[in-house]
Amino acid sequence: HYPLRRQRQMCIRDRSYSRTIDSRGDFSWGASLKFQSISLVERLRSLDEYEESELLDWGRDVKNHYKLNGDVGVAWQKDFVRVSTAVKNIFPGDFRGPLGGHYKLRPAVKFAAEFSQDRFVHGVHWDVNPDQGFGVLRDSQQISATTTYGVSENLDVGLGYNYVQKGDFVNSYELSLKYKYQPIYFQAIGRFAARAYGFGIQAQMLF
After folding, report:
1. Averaged pLDDT of the chain
2. Residue of 4, 12, 186, 204 with fewest CB within 10 Å of its CB?
3. What value does the CA radius of gyration of the chain take, rounded to a whole number of Å?
4. Residue 99 CA to chain centroid, in angstroms?
5. Residue 124's pLDDT is what?
6. Tens of pLDDT, residues 95-142
């Protein structure tokens, strides 16, 4: 008999509405209300039935969950320095995959510090507590350093480095592009490591 191979994947998609609620002096705080689509994929196959193409087939063995959630954050800004803290997913949740695998959605605390200089913005971003993993994918925690250059009033390009403190990911370099033209905000990020790469896209309507 061939041994069984278990595969687990997770994808979270957010649709959110964000607003700065109050600003007093150097301090401001805001909140986001968001609708989350959480897709959990679990497959159990023996090696004689296993096919490589199934890895990229998101239509198979998937269980979708939907949840209303929110983020809150506070920021302090003085001259060219900005420090902020945000709590993501303030409402936790427990979800099961198609084969019974357990995923726990927990609040995640994020910290950021930025320094502006002419057209440059230098920043440090830190996962204060780990992001939750699923199945064989362990919890992850990272710290990153970035530099962004303002090409024009609407366009920014950036370069960064991500250091993995905990988890299965590897240290990576990051390239980013941000475009804003009221009320549209668009961001594309690419991450590159020695033997892996990934891309992400975010689009927002600002009101």
Report:
1. 84
2. 4
3. 19
4. 25
5. 97
6. 988 888 888 899 999 999 999 998 999 999 999 999 888 766 788 899
Instruction: Check whether 204 has a pLDDT greater than 70.
Output: yes
Q: What does the alpha-carbon distance between residue 191 and residue 137 come to, in Å, rounded to a whole number?
A: 19
Give the 3-state secondary structure of the chain.
CCCEEEEEEEEEEEEEEEEEEEEECCEEEEEEEEEEEEEEEEEEEECCCCCHHHHHCCCCCEEEEEEEEEEEEEEEEECCEEEEEEEECCCCEEEECCCCCEEEECCEEEEEEEEEECCEEEEEEEECCCECCECCECCEEEEEEEEEEECCCCEEEEEEEEEEEECCCCCEEEEEEEEEECCEEEEEEEEECCCCEEEEEEEEECC
Query: What's this model's pTM, rounded to 2 decimal places?
Result: 0.77
Please give the C-alpha separations between residue 18 and each of 33, 58, 127, in angstroms, as whole numbers. 6, 29, 21
- Give strand pairing partners of 46: 4
Q: Which residues contact 95 (CB under 8 A, 6 or more apart)?
A: 38, 40, 63, 65, 102, 103, 104, 105
Give the whole-angstrom CA distance, residue 191 versus residue 188.
10
The Cα-based distances of 156 to 75, 112, 181 in angstroms read 21, 18, 12
